[in-house]
């Protein structure tokens, strides 16, 4: 415990140093690159590159401050766990791998941190060893492996050009390069159709969800696209525009029909990832990075508040059993509601400065009316599920009377207060320091007040939603399965591959599930293999038959 406190103090000091360095690099318009030659192979030079500019240092500072607060938070949240030391080692390894992805522009060094992110996130998801965690971990790692394959294909493709440094690459007209970059980013940031792993990863402990699945891991794909935006051509931007608007709309709709507290916040994260990808596809990558930083701060705060609610109510995650929690945990509810207002883009909170600027600049663009409708519907759904969450936790009747609320949570509250202060005032500070180039925004009065009209309409809709009949069997089934994504990821029990991979069938009862012809064929093969007259042809037949048996199994 003493070691973790020392690590936390050092991380906070490094966070301050990175932030000051980021300001200095921004003021002087400087960037530094360090190159270490590891070895040469013919005309290929394997170099380890470190690229330091204001963007990488700002992201490192954000990762450090969030990680340090979550480690303090975890000391109390995970205090009764037997494998607490193992948990902290995984968190530290995750932070190191995240820094590797941020500071290196070479695709060969990115793959090291990228693979470590996927592997450690899988180990953190299956930390609670039960069936749900194992299934969620499998969905997580399979989805992330697709992105890893895309990175490996990019490595093999860049070998043709003699360099793995993506900062100096200008292959923006190459379709394969664009496609691989987009797939790797979409898998990490959980864009459609790879969206299922993010809500499934909520089986992990709440500190993991706060660090990994809200502010760092899911933003790694967004950061990759922001860093290498010069490689994306116009056609790929159009694909990203459709995918991101579709993802944001789907996630906002899903969040309004869920009752699991962590999954609602997970779909909120997914909706904001779609908003960032939408902004990148409009070529405003600076604004996307601004929203990435502010979102990381208030969303990690939101997850930590939900962790206190879950921890204090005997691990209950159903929001229908909450209500009137301001009587029991006023400080937590104040921070929780302020983070929710940041998510809505309430004026003069940190989410307002990034989100309002994104909305206004998109109103200036000449976009497809369908895309803009989905964009504004996603924002309206964000306000709606935020009001719904605040109602069930703050305004609803107390349904938690039989449970004993455990309230002695000093370390958790300290970390929450620090993150709340940063998430409240950081947006205004960043606007003055870094993102002052977007001051001239020419929109009319109606467009300017349109976000406020959205908030008023959603409040009125929320107050009258109980009188509206929105329940339809097919409609509900479609929404709850994330627009049928569950059926893509889950095999049927009668599926051939399911039978072949299932432990129970393959080890104990697999013969019962084979038909009579397959069983007689297997008997003939076994008879040939056990025959005493073994010639070369029969030996060859033996190996062929073993191969066929494994294909059948």
From TrEMBL:
Enzyme class: translocase
Mode of membrane association: Multi-pass membrane protein
TM annotation in the entry: 7-28, 48-74, 86-104, 110-128, 149-169, 208-226, 238-257, 264-282, 288-310, 331-349, 369-391, 412-437, 449-467
InterPro entries: ND/Mrp_TM (IPR001750), NU5C-like (IPR003945)
GO molecular function: NADH dehydrogenase (ubiquinone) activity; NADH dehydrogenase activity
Compartments it resides in: Membrane
Recorded GO CC terms: membrane
Highest taxon of the lineage: Eukaryota
UniProt keyword Transmembrane present: yes
Catalysed conversion reaction: a ubiquinone + NADH + 5 H(+)(in) = a ubiquinol + NAD(+) + 4 H(+)(out)
Pfam families: Proton_antipo_M
Limits of the NADH:quinone oxidoreductase/Mrp antiporter transmembrane domain: 104-380
Enzyme Commission code: 7.1.1.2
Principal location listed in the UniProt entry: membrane
Role this protein plays: Core subunit of the mitochondrial membrane respiratory chain NADH dehydrogenase (Complex I) that is believed to belong to the minimal assembly required for catalysis. Complex I functions in the transfer of electrons from NADH to the respiratory chain. The immediate electron acceptor for the enzyme is believed to be ubiquinone.
Name the record gives this protein: NADH:ubiquinone reductase (H(+)-translocating)
Source organism (scientific name): Ettchellsia sinica
Classification of source organism: Eukaryota, Metazoa, Ecdysozoa, Arthropoda, Hexapoda
Gene, per the UniProt record: ND5
